[in-house]
């Protein structure tokens, strides 16, 4: 669009602007080159061919959405047979189908605009940006003119395939909502974790138990309950308590992933004199070793950024900061709830274990139930 102040006025003589009109061939517009018609403007066959190309792109997007759903239910994560060119078939095909579907919509819209929408030069006088009734009417007329120029009313094939592509684009998103959690998730499953009295803490990668003698002041480790981390042989051991009793049976793959997320903890050792001894948590540490949930109480990000001198733990997502020396209280940021703390104990050999589950729900504060 050309905004020319020295073109013939397009108004009603009272300074009110009207809807700008396309320049005719005989109009003189200083600075504008002569208009070059596109093939689709002068050749009906080229126009129809371009219309079919755009519609084909939108249809291809719909096909990709359907293939996304097929791939989602066909491939399983973690199975060796579900691989393709060395990559996990699930992630590979989900990414390809979703990406190609979105790309097809974008390319189709661009082709539609470049080849089929109205292609004329429009000149409009500069005018004050007043919100008068006349200007509002002018804007509405301009929007109507733009819709007319897009040809969406005259091209039902493009219109219908575009609407279909946009509708199908939402199908992968709806299907992927299943990954937010099991359909039978309940409040009780959110409030309770895998932890129970007598369950040992193990390193989250090696699966070895943590001994009090292994930690120096300032050390911070990521931990999990025993039974959620494979041992050196690759098996999930059934957790055994300090008295040799079996606490829980081994879990299947789906249960394992859910419980590992909820039960992750951090273990930190500080000087016992730095700990604020709250009346209800006087004996929750072992020689200055404290244990807290690893899940931020703001929106659930994993946290492990420790400031050794202040014993402050920082969440990298939104900078919520918790004081691990004072029952995990929030000292900065948007989190509205203290970090859940675990009551620790040690057996005769010095290995750390839990005295029970957390006494409050882990994760974002909105998980709490009355």
TrEMBL record:
It comes from the Bacteria. Gene3D superfamilies: Rieske [2Fe-2S] iron-sulphur domain (2.102.10.10). Keywords: 2Fe-2S, Cell membrane, Disulfide bond, Electron transport, Iron, Iron-sulfur, Membrane, Metal-binding, Oxidoreductase, Respiratory chain, Transmembrane, Transmembrane helix, Transport. GO terms for cellular component: plasma membrane. Its cofactor is [2Fe-2S] cluster. It is found in: Cell membrane. InterPro entries: QcrA_N (IPR045603), Rieske_2Fe-2S (IPR017941), Rieske_2Fe-2S_sf (IPR036922), Rieske_Fe-S_prot (IPR014349), Rieske_Fe-S_prot_C (IPR005805). The keyword rRNA-binding does not apply. Its main location: membrane. Coiled coil: none annotated. CDD domains: Rieske (cd03467). Residues 284-353 form the Rieske domain. Residues 1-40 are annotated as: Disordered. The chain crosses the membrane at residues 54-75, 87-110, 157-177. Iron-sulfur subunit of the cytochrome bc1 complex, an essential component of the respiratory electron transport chain required for ATP synthesis. The bc1 complex catalyzes the oxidation of menaquinol and the reduction of cytochrome c in the respiratory chain. The bc1 complex operates through a Q-cycle mechanism that couples electron transfer to generation of the proton gradient that drives ATP synthesis. PANTHER family: CYTOCHROME B-C1 COMPLEX SUBUNIT RIESKE, MITOCHONDRIAL. Belongs to the Rieske iron-sulfur protein family. This is Cytochrome bc1 complex Rieske iron-sulfur subunit.
